[in-house]
Write a structure and sequence with these properties.
Helix content is about 30%, strand content about 30%. It is an alpha/beta fold and about 200 residues long. Strands 5-4-3-6-7-8 form a six-stranded mixed sheet.
């Protein structure tokens, strides 16, 4: 796991400042996982221990939510010799536009960073509506906290980071008023989160 952290730092995938997470919460740190994706060899090395843990499960399909999960789903699928697909948003609703899941297929959701796990619920819904079985989440960075666990089990991660995140109204960085709030993710935020920008 420490090797994965070193690789993230080498890729400058770890940022500090004032960030709006896809959950709507604020944080002083952000993992810009697209920076890791620039280097296929480094990405493969970071995902190798995750793939090793997944080999113990009978997984049929690795599903990566667009955008953040696509590359990691592909890399896990490559290392496991399994099918890798992705979900994407159509009119801001997560869908399985290009692919299909057969009834009973066992799926894992591949994410870049999981903070609350709420975002993955949309992909879980898509899997189950197609008749698939969602076994859980695998991710590069697990930012969940013991007092706020993911609603979907996290089966494996390359890195577990205990980084603070706050409700917008409780954010000490906002209270200081020194750093602008930055949203780097690809997900369109709900109206309430947009108002905090």
């Amino acid at each position: 796991m420490s090797n994965a952290v070193e690789i993230l730092k080498e890729c400058q995938a770890f940022l500090e400042g004032h960030f709006l997470l896809s959950s709507g919460r604020h944080s002083s740190a952000y993992c810009q996982m697209a920076y890791l994706q620039q280097y296929p060899d480094k990405c493969a090395a970071v995902m190798a221990p995750v793939a090793d843990q997944l080999r113990q499960l009978d997984v049929d399909v690795v599903v990566g939510p667009a955008m953040g999960g696509i590359v990691y789903a592909y890399e896990l699928g490559r290392q496991l010799g399994k099918r890798a697909i992705f979900t994407e948003r159509v009119d801001n609703v997560m869908t399985l536009k290009r692919f299909s899941i057969q009834p009973g297929e066992k799926c894992v959701i591949a994410e870049d960073v999981v903070t609350t796990g709420v975002s993955s619920l949309e992909t879980k819904r898509v899997i189950e509506e197609a008749g698939g079985v969602c076994l859980g989440i695998v991710c590069v960075v697990d930012r969940t906290k013991a007092d706020a666990p993911s609603p979907i089990p996290i089966l494996a991660s390359a890195v577990k980071l205990d980084l603070p995140n706050y409700l917008p109204e409780e954010c000490p960085i906002c209270a200081e008023g020194k750093l602008p709030l930055v949203h780097l993710g690809s997900r369109k935020m709900k109206e309430q989160a947009k108002q905090t920008l």
